[in-house]
Amino acid sequence: MACVATLPTGIAAFASCPLSNDKQSKLSKKSDIPHDRDSLRVGEIDEFTVIADRVRKEVISSAPVFNLSNERMKTIGVTDISDALHRLPGLNIKDYGGAGGMRTVSVRGFGANHTGVIYDGIVLSDCQSGKIDLSRYSLDNVGSLSVTIGDNSDIFIPAKASASAASILISTLSVPAPNDSAWHLTARFRAGSWRFLNPYLKVGKTLTKNFSFSLIGEYTHAKNNYPFTLYNGVMVTRERRNNSRMNSGHGELNVRWRPTQASTLDGKVYYYDNNRQLPGAVVLYNPVINERLRDRNFFGQLTYRNLSLDKFSFQGLAKFNWDASLYHDENGKYPGGMLDENYYQREVYLSGSALYLPTDRLSFNYSADYFYNNLNSNQPATVEVKPRRHSFLQSFTGKFRNNWMQAMVRLLWSVYDNEVRYGESAKDENKLSPSASVSFQPFSSLFFIRASYKNIFRMPTFNDNYYFHMGSVSLKPEDSDQVNLGFTYQMPALSWLSTAVFTVDTYYNSVKNKIVAIPQNMFIWTMMNLGKARAFGVDVTANATFHLSRNQNLVFASNYSWQRVQPRTNRKDPDYNKQVAYTPQHSGAASLSWQNPWVDVVFHATGVSERYGTNSNLPVSRVKGYIECGASLMRTFRFHGHSLDLRFDLLNMFDKQYEVVVDYPMPGRSWKATVTFEP
């Protein structure tokens, strides 16, 4: 695999493509460039391209990082965001089924509230529930998707990006390159089972030397009435999901302005609208469901970066976010026969980061963030309370790196100021969270040992604090510690083995002041800090590319996770030391791709062991394990400078019926066909 860096006329730069020790020594022996940085002469040079073998980020990082590029996802047959996350270790995905089903992700036994989602450098937020629904985001415009557990080894990030136990980073394919003046068009149409239709269009162009843009439009329709088998004692019937239709649209405008050679200003305007029916849980003898949910999200964001050639660089971010969740249900149990619950969230976010490089080996970063959140709804709890939160985050990070070691230390100071218009507000918080990580290379080969520690917490959400008959304003934040120890290895390339990368990580996590719901009577529950939980486990990945002949390769990718996540609140509790609900002890995925001049073929499988729907692990709540298999066929035709990409996916090819969430059956065998044209 190669790393390519194109340097424009008139500037010099240090490529961030780490080389193996052998290649570094060869460059040092053959180069006449002095090692003393101050003795370098500055001058104008023509544009040139640097190409070098690239070391995988998973190998050199001091904390676990797992990355899937756009090309990698295509190679291993990834079909959507949920499938992509299944290919990464340590992740537990809650999936409610179908094209419109909600998907949330927890990492290594932490709840979904502990997982941050970063979209093009800025953290997404949901102050109401704290969970980000990843079904909103398609892979069509994703350049890379990665998961960082603990602290990101890239220190030039906002403070908010380090305020989670783990982060999912989504980077989009934004705008054309500055030296590319041609129009860029991508037209894609996807169709599949159960009336799934998904047209996608992207247009982009560099209008001037310093200004580029791209415009994206996408629409998805699905009836989602897939069949499933219903077991009722000795009676077995074949049913269909109903009330499952979805219509969603997504539009996005990206612009990039380059005021100087070393600075960029990126802007994004995003809108998402999903009007869907909710199929609900399968209930015997009561198939009638009339629930609907409309999700609307708008945000605009600006990112300014000045990557100076001197010792200082600066980054500034600004964002406004508006989100609406409109729920409607028709049922005789409600007064008037209908229930409408409407929630509206707003966020204003500002961030500044300064990077200081006193030497080539030492770097420091200071980041300061401010964000304001509020929540309104037509429900009594928030109509009367109108909660607001001011948040101030500051982080200071130091990083040292040489030829054989990388070490990082970070301090995050978090201040949360809660307000309400009426009544009593939630507690204010002020916490200091330390973290540290190190990765070192004991031998000359690309073998690294890494260790990391991170202390972090998550604030109670507005639902936790203020939800009607349930919220508690006296809640403390959940406080967590995570420790990781592992090793990584990238084999040298051979004539028959292009790449081979292995990672093994063991970990221990603990959560204190876990927020749980406790019943006060049959109708009133209260959120309280009662819980303690711990998690320990092992994550393993193995990836290799075998070179068969000049135009043929076999690409193998796999991951496996073993985890024990246990409540540890009280030894007398029935759930003490049991496995936390919906957390499998064993999970994994594997794929094998045959790349050839005719039709690329991919076979892939994902699976989890049995889980339980309750922390008490009652037999009646047992959820069976499953292995889901699929296959993909892909072929690209090129003619007269155009590209036509054809793809066919067969999902759940053995028609395995399974559930991720109890009483929410997942789709059986289905297909998708995709046509992509790029002139």
Low-confidence spans: 1-44, 46-53
The fraction of residues in strands falls at: over 45%
End-to-end distance: 27 Å
Specify the structural class: mainly beta
Which word captures the global form?
A: globular
Query: What value does the average pLDDT take?
Result: 88
- How can the largest sheet be summarized? 22 strands, antiparallel, barrel
Q: How much is the radius of gyration in Å?
A: 26 Å
**What share of residues is helical?**
under 10%
- What is the helix tally? 6
Number of E strands: 37
Description:
This protein is mainly beta and 679 residues long. Helices cover 5% and strands 57% of the residues. It contains six helices and 37 strands. The longest helix is centred in the N-terminal third of the chain and has 10 residues, at 21-30. The chain is globular, with a radius of gyration of 26 Å.
Key features of this structure:
679 residues; mainly beta; 22-stranded antiparallel β-barrel; 5-stranded mixed sheet; 6 helices; 37 strands; 5% helix
What topology does this entry show?
Elements: E1 2-7, H1 21-30, E2 48-53, H2 57-60, E3 65-69, H3 70-75, H4 81-86, E4 91-95, E5 103-107, E6 115-119, E7 122-123, E8 142-149, E9 166-172, E10 184-192, E11 196-208, E12 211-222, E13 227-232, E14 235-240, E15 246-260, E16 263-278, E17 291-306, E18 312-330, E19 338-356, E20 362-377, H5 380-385, E21 387-401, E22 405-420, E23 429-440, E24 446-458, H6 462-466, E25 478-490, E26 497-519, E27 525-549, E28 552-567, E29 586-595, E30 600-608, E31 611-612, E32 622-623, E33 626-639, E34 642-651, E35 659-661, E36 664-665, E37 670-678
Parallel strand pairs: 6-9
Antiparallel strand pairs: 1-2, 3-8, 4-5, 6-7, 8-9, 10-11, 10-37, 11-12, 12-15, 13-14, 15-16, 16-17, 17-18, 18-19, 19-20, 20-21, 21-22, 22-23, 23-24, 24-25, 25-26, 26-27, 27-28, 28-29, 29-30, 30-33, 31-32, 33-34, 34-37, 35-36
